């Protein structure tokens, strides 16, 4: 028997992910670009509808208010996505709403000064203005850390080993929005999950005019089929005698978005009135802004890999965080009821359809702005039952998590030190937030429950986030445990060449500012 060569049983580490049809600066035809952009827009609707649908009723708002918030959120998402792809990291990332802001926003909603207001509409407006004020103040954290390049300095302590748990839990940390939501309506969630996997993976070689149409447009095709199937079930009376929870999840006519949406409505700043400011609310919101910063850092690194780009240099990453801070400021000015972060599901879609083109994401931003102004048409697409989105999340969140695991190729996983750090950070990154979630469900408040509400919000928000917990643990252990003699094991020699803009010639291709703006903002 012939001797087995080392190259036959191992794979060399690769700076850029291979196998993508289009990378960050290559573009499909305009027809494909428009369809792919529309696909990203459809995917972004899940979070854009889910967050207001949960928060607005608890604030005293009605269906009209919910539709206005959804429209405003989509409008600002479109603007923020354009800003990020033009002037931020320039990675093909959709900037969407964030669940990280739920804890401080729910705390504001439960504030006794608002809960005692009898008029529901006045309570809604008062709460909305308080959330706006907190977002405006909180946005300063990312603006300062980003544009001052402080986050670039902090990122010097990040190694490939330290980033593995963070990027992995950006995907795995959202597990409660996957199959648990599919299970709320299995008759449409399970078929959607199976059909999406079959189209995007098993039938990916089916081509029409040399275009792998089933792989590239799997989300659009399967969503249309299952949505039509769900509408057929609704129209036939299949849910007529089912519990309200099932009807709300399964029916295509329960969101009340289409009937409540205006034909044309252009969102504008301060349309809910002048924001109000409270130190306690603002401090709690700052924690959510920090969580958003960590989650976006992991998502940016995942997006760079799925766009077949090199890892973003420290100053580019910091620049992107600064522009995301501007995005959160816009969230506060417009009143979107949440802050901004990189949309993890849209990052996953880059890998699923193997198209990492920046132009596609910019087209999707155009769809967000356009349909946010044409209310009825946008509401039609926003009425897709959430289990359909959840089924897609099961695949896309897992794909993003696997990108995080792929960074292990640059480290030495025969090192007990590395195994310890990776395992502990991954486990506690899942376990600690799960403890906080279960405690909150049982006690109706977080484990941090002192008389200082701002302190409670800060701690509960931080430890509710899996990527944030993983970052704290992984980076601390990685920089204190035998760190002097383990640079190679941590992957630092590979990482070092991407720290600065000029260290690798590919950085200019991927991350240079448009319109020759590098003349005025020279990269470091």
Automatic annotation (TrEMBL):
Membrane association type: Multi-pass membrane protein
Keywords, comma-separated and alphabetical: Membrane, Transmembrane, Transmembrane helix
An annotated Gene Ontology molecular function: transmembrane transporter activity
Principal place of residence: membrane
Gene Ontology cellular component terms for the protein in this record: membrane
The organism's place on the tree of life at top rank: Eukaryota
UniProt-annotated location(s): Membrane
Family: Belongs to the nucleobase:cation symporter-2 (NCS2) (TC 2.A.40) family.
Protein name: Nucleobase-ascorbate transporter-like protein
Upper taxonomic lineage: Eukaryota, Viridiplantae, Streptophyta, Embryophyta, Tracheophyta
